[in-house]
Known about the structure:
The protein has one domain (about 15-170): Nuclear Transport Factor 2, Chain: A (Roll). Helix content is about 20%, strand content about 35%. The protein is built from 4 helices and 8 strands. Strands 4-3-8-7-6-5 form a 6-stranded mixed beta sheet. It has a two-stranded antiparallel sheet with strand order 1-2. The longest helix is centred in the middle third of the chain and has 13 residues, at about 90-105. The radius of gyration is 16 Å and the shape is globular. It starts with 13 loop residues before the first strand and ends in a 13-residue tail after the last strand.
Amino acid sequence: xxxxxxxxxxxxxxxxxxxxxxxxxxxxxxxxxxxxxxxxxxxxxxxxxxxxxxxxxxxxxxxxxxxxxxxxxxxxxxxxxxxxxxxxxxxxxxxxxxxxxxxxxxxxxxxxxxxxxxxxxxxxxxxxxxxxxxxxxxxxxxxxxxxxxxxxxxxxxxxxxxxxxxxxxxxxxxxxxxxxxxxxx
Length: 185
């Protein structure tokens, strides 16, 4: 069952052009928060999260476009990220630096398919999001083409109209007896 904060928009809702009362778009507000003023730094149209559930969609879109700037835009400036191997990084620059090299090499032909499990409101403007993520890699990966399923937990906070990821942890599904990765049905 889906639990979500009450927001008067249909699920999932991703805004790209809404403006606030002062005429600034959510993207402009996000750029101000992370100190970006040079719009040429952004490679593609970034997904702006106006509902916590949309973070899974934004993560998938950025990954599948191999656009690490767009991936970083989903996070608070000081967010933490734990990858499926237990590597902890802090901040957008480190999150991008963790992902950019693998998207230029072993994950350059990879795709993600995400499925929201639930959203739990834990306070005004704070939510926990759980979603399944299936990573499918191609021939550029040293192990060859294969898929890996992970469970992702993200804590998001709302800043004006936008939700941003404050902390994210990614756990690979494995057989507890053998340690071998397993796929969901």
